[in-house]
Design brief:
Helix content: 55-70%
Distance between the termini: 64 Å
Largest sheet: none
CATH superfamily of the domain at 8-77: lambda repressor-like DNA-binding domains
Shape: globular
Radius of gyration: 19 Å
Number of helices: 7
Structural class: mainly alpha
């Protein structure tokens, strides 16, 4: 017996459901209650292993106060392999509690220069070049993080 892989569109829609649920701070159980299903069914929706019907997607959109089209945003003509890479990147950031907290804090920063400095700092750290804050360029010294 072969195991059928989820359709990439179902995976994308499910990941958007999960992202929105995280952003509004709702548990799988609470969403399940709103939909009249089990939390296990919500898990299957979010993984793309269960396809979400049009009427159910409309209900989810109403619960999250977004248009149905929200769940299809950012879909491109990527191959399943490229789609998996994009989903992995999203899962490693926004689709985690830390990612949601980071995103909420980041978008609340009003100063665009500070936001750009944070982006530059994260890029520098991600490249794994600097070994300490002292190794970072001076323009990345936001809010006095460096001790001289």
């Amino acid at each position: 017996m072969t195991v059928k892989s989820p359709n990439p569109i179902d995976v994308h829609v499910g990941s958007r459901v999960r992202m929105r649920r995280f952003l509004v701070g709702m548990s799988q159980g609470k969403l399940a209650e709103q939909l009249g299903v089990t939390f296990q069914q919500v898990q299957k929706y979010e993984k793309g292993t269960s396809r979400i019907s049009a009427s159910r997607l409309q209900t989810i959109a109403r619960v999250f106060e977004v248009p149905v089209g929200f769940f299809f945003e950012n879909m491109t003509g990527h191959s399943p392999l490229e789609e998996d890479v994009l989903l992995d990147a999203a899962g490693a950031t926004l689709l985690t509690r830390d990612g949601v907290a980071l995103n909420r804090a980041f978008v609340s920063i009003k100063n665009s220069g500070v936001r750009k400095s944070i982006i530059d700092l994260v890029k520098a750290l991600a490249d794994d070049r600097p070994t300490s804050l002292a190794d970072l360029p001076a323009e990345l010294d936001i809010r006095g993080l460096r001790s001289n």
